[in-house]
Fold:
Amino acid sequence: MKKIASFTVDHLRLQPGIYVSRRDRIGAETITTFDLRMTSPNEEPVMNTAEVHTIEHLGATFLRNHPDWADRVIYFGPMGCRTGFYLLLAGSLSSKDIVPLIREMFAFIRDFEGDIPGAAPADCGNWLDQNLPMAKYLADRYLSQVLDHIGPDRLNYPQ
Structure:
């Protein structure tokens, strides 16, 4: 079987950043899949499910309510390896195009106070598996260590 695109990336050299994972044509539309890599694969511990779940709830809520991007959001969710998230947006976009959006989203997560959207039994199949303090910590870490000074080496997959 042919390897899928995400399994062809050298995860021994991959560092946290924002990467275009793939672009797909669906009819006349292009869908860009972004790899929002938050931890160094195979170097750092992976994120635990509770904080990943909280980032998913807050990130999806933020994106689907964003005044400029909501209509382009297809999907936001965690990678199975728990080292980051996938974001699918309508349009042929580059990593650089979405840096301001991703900074804004992770600042929203870092600064969030109150009840986690969708963290209720009627709204979520695993509503108790949440960790807001750790999600905020990870959002702040991604902002300060990666997003606030992101350069070309963190916007393009290593060759």
